[in-house]
Amino acid sequence: MDSTAHNFKKNAAGALNDAQLQRALAHVPRGFVKKRADAADALPEFERLRDQGRDIKNHVLEHLDIYLEAFEEKVVEAGGYVHWATTAEEARNLVVRLCLDREAETVTKGKSMISEEIGLNAGLEKVGIEPVETDLGEYIIQLRGETPSHLIAPAVHLNKDQIEADFRRVHTELPEERNLHEPASLVHEAREILRDKYLDADVGITGANFLIAETGTSVIVTNEGNGDLTQILPKTHIVIASIEKVVPTLEDASTFVRLLARSATGQEISNYTTFSTGPKRRGDPDGPNEYHVVLLDNGRSSMLGTEFQDMLRCIRCGACLNHCPVYQAVGGHAYGWVYSGPMGSVLTPNLIGVDEAGHLPNASTFCGRCEEVCPMRIPLPRMMRNWREREFEKHLTPFTIRRGLGVWAWFAQRPKLYQRVTALASRLLKWRAGSKGRMKNVPLADGWVKYRDLPAPQGKTFQQMWKERGNV
Amino acid sequence: MSESKIKVGLFVTCLVDIFRPSVGFAAVKLLEDAGCTVEVPEMQTCCGQPAYNTGDRKTSKEIAEKTIRAFEPYEYVVAPSGSCAGMLKKHYPTLFGEGTGVQSRAIALADKTHELVSFLTDVLEVKGVDAQFGRCVTYHDSCSGLRELKVHKQPRKLLSSVAGLELREMSDANVCCGFGGTFCVKYPDISNDMLTKKMANIEASGADVLLAGDLGCLMNMAGKLKRDGSKIEVRHVAEVLAGETLLPSIGEGED
Ligand code: SF4
C-alpha cells in the first residue's frame, strides 16, 4: 500500500473538516470506551491477565526463532505448508503465485491487516483474480475502493446512509425499492451477495490472530463467522500472518483470546474463535484440501533487540485507537498507511521508515491513555518518544523547532541569566496584554493564537517576588 | 520547633514562574500551613520537558543534572504540576545509564519528588484546608498527574473541605485537553479539536469555575474559553485550596 503518512498534517486537516467523517468518528468514544471499561471491571483477574499476556509475548520474542520453527514443523506434520516472506512484495508474489497455480478465478478473504500491508488485493486483481472481502466492514470499503480506517472496525469512518448508497450503486441486480434503512437490512443484503461467493471461491485467504507453536494451528477471531466460511469451503486455505503472531501453547492462546475480545469490543469472547490445523483429514466432514501459511517478516525481525521490540507484543485489539484523542479527532486514514492510532504511530515508522512516517510519533500529547488500556502493556508513549529521539539525531526535526529549542535550552542551563530574561518576558507580555489579561496576537506563537488567546503573565516572575519578600 | 519541620524544596515550574507566580505562593502557603518550611532554590529553571519531548536527549540530561543538583539538599521536592513532577519522578531516572552515579542521584530525587496536592494528602496526611470559595467548580484531570502519578482523588478530597464549594464533575474529565506542550503549536488543528470537545464538557457541567493542577493545561483551556467569550473562570487548584482567589483568574485582566 502506498503511504501518505508524510502528508499527515494535510490529511488531518482534511479529516477535521469532513463533517460526515466527524459524525462517524463520534461513535468511537461513545461505543468502544465504555464497553471495554465495563468488561475489564467485570473480570477480577483482568489486570493479572494483562501481566500474563505481556510475559508470554516477551518470552516468545526472546525465542522467536525457536517457536517459529516449532510452528512450521507442526504445520508440516499436519499436512500443511509454510512459506517464508522477508518483504511485503515477496509475500504478495507468493500468495498470487499460489492462487495462479490453482487456476483461481475468485478468492474469498477474511479480515487481515497483513493483506493490506502487502497490497494483496491489487496484486490479485492485476493477474485477473477477483478478491472478495467477506468481513462486512471490509466488504463495504472494498466497494468504495478504500482501505480500513480501524484495526477491528474497518468501516468505522462511514455512516449508515453512505453504506446504503454504496449498496444501491453496486448491487444493481436487486430491486430499487427495497428497504435498506435498518442496519440489519444492510447486513442481510451483504450476506445474500456473499453466500454465492463463498461457494464459487477457489481459494480462501485469512489472516491469523494467533499461531500456536505447540500444535501448528492458526486461530482467527471474528464476530460474523465469515472467516470460517472463507477457510472451510474453498479447496485451498492460505493463512497470511506476520511472524510475531506465534504463541507457545493452546493454553497461552486462551489467555490472549480472553484479553483480546474484552479490550477490543468489551465482549467476554468473540462470537467465533476458529482453530485450523492443516488441511482436511480423512473422515473430516469438511475443510480445505490444502493448507498454506505465509509468514511475513517485513522489517519485524529488525525490531528485535531494539527499543521497539515491545511493539511486537501487539495483538491488534484496537483499544489504543479507541482511546486516543488524536485518533478520535482525525480517524484512521489520516495516518496515511495501514496502521493508525498510537500503535500505528510506533509501528509504521518501523515498517516504512521514519523519514516517511515521522509525523506520526510527533502527533501525540503523550496523554498516556493508550498505554493505560493496552492489554499487552505496550509502552506506546515511550516508543513515540524514542522515534522523536531518532528523528532529532537524524536532523529530521524541523529547523525552526530545533533552533527555538536550542535558544531556550541555552538559557535554561544558565539560571541567573534565565531569570533576567524570564522577568523581562513576563513584564513585556503583561504590558502587551494591557488591562485585558490576555492576548489575541503574540509574535512567534501563531500555532497557539490561531485558536486561543494567550493568558497574560502577572507581571513579575515568582523568583523575583520571592526575593522581594526577603527570601534568598 | 522549627528544626523538626519538614524541609521542602519548591520546584516552581517554568510556567508558574513566568505566568502565574500566585500559584507558587499558594503552594508555599499550603505547605507552610501543613507544617513545612519551604525554600526555593535559585538554580532551578525548567524540568526540561520541551527538550525531552522533542527527542533532544542530550539537552534533557544536561537540564536534569542541573535540577538534580539544585534539589539535593531537600528532604522533599514539591511541584504545583503533575506534568513537571512526573518528569522528575518518572523520566529523569530513565535518562541516565543503568547503575551510574548520576542515575542513583536521579532516583534519589525521584523518590522524594511529589506533585503538590498528592503530597499534602498522601505524605502529610492533610485532611482538609481552611479556605472558603462559594462557587460551583469542575475539575480537569491533567494527563501526567493522573496517569503517571495517580492524582485523581486527592484534589477532590481537599476541594470537598473548602467551605461553600460545590464540585460538579464534567464528563470525560480524564481526557486530554489537547495541550501536550509543543503539540499544541505543532498540530494546532488537532489540538483545537480536542480542546473544543473539552470546552463542551466543561460548559455542560454547569460549573462556573474550572480547576486543574497543571498550568499548561489551564492556560490552554483558559485561552480557548476566553477566545470564545466564556464567563467561566479558570484557576489552578492550589489557589482555591489556599484561599487565594482575589487575583484575576487565568486570562482575565484587572478590569
Ligand atoms: S498496541 Fe495494545 S492497545 Fe493498541 S492494538 Fe496493540 S495490543 Fe491493542
Structural commentary:
The complex is a heterodimer of chains A (472) and B (255). Among the domains of chain A are: 254 residues, NagB/RpiA/CoA transferase-like (Rossmann fold), CATH 3.40.50; 69 residues, no CATH class. Chain A is built from 23 helices and twelve strands. In chain A, the strands form three sheets. Chain A has a six-stranded parallel beta sheet with strand order 1-10-7-4-2-3, sandwiched between helices. In chain A, strands 8-5-6-9 form a four-stranded mixed beta sheet. In chain A, strand 5 and strand 6 form a beta hairpin. Chain A is globular. The mean pLDDT of chain A is 95. In chain B, helix 7 crosses helix 9 and helix 11 packs across helix 12. Chain B has two domains: 117 residues, Rossmann fold (3-Layer(aba) Sandwich); 114 residues, Rossmann fold (3-Layer(aba) Sandwich). By secondary structure, chain B is of the alpha/beta class. Chain B is globular and about 50 Å long. Chain B has a four-stranded parallel beta sheet, with helices on both faces. The complex binds iron/sulfur cluster. Iron/sulfur cluster (SF4) binds next to helix 14 of chain A. The site of iron/sulfur cluster (SF4) has 14 residues of chain A, from helix 14.
Indicate the mean pLDDT of chain B: 96
CATH fold-level name of the largest domain in chain B: Rossmann fold
Distance between the termini of chain B: 44 Å
- CATH homologous superfamily assignment of the domain at 43-296 in chain A: NagB/RpiA/CoA transferase-like
Query: What's the CATH class label of the domain at 43-296 in chain A?
Result: Alpha Beta
CATH class of the largest domain in chain B: Alpha Beta
CATH architecture of the largest domain in chain B: 3-Layer(aba) Sandwich
What share of the residues of chain B does DSSP label as strand, in percent?
Answer: 5-15%
**Secondary structure: number of strands of chain A:** 12
Structural class of the secondary structure composition of chain A?
Answer: alpha/beta
Basic shape of chain B = globular
- Residue stretches of chain B low in confidence (pLDDT < 50, at least 5 long) are none
Largest interface: A-B, 70 and 73 residues
Shape annotation of chain A:
globular
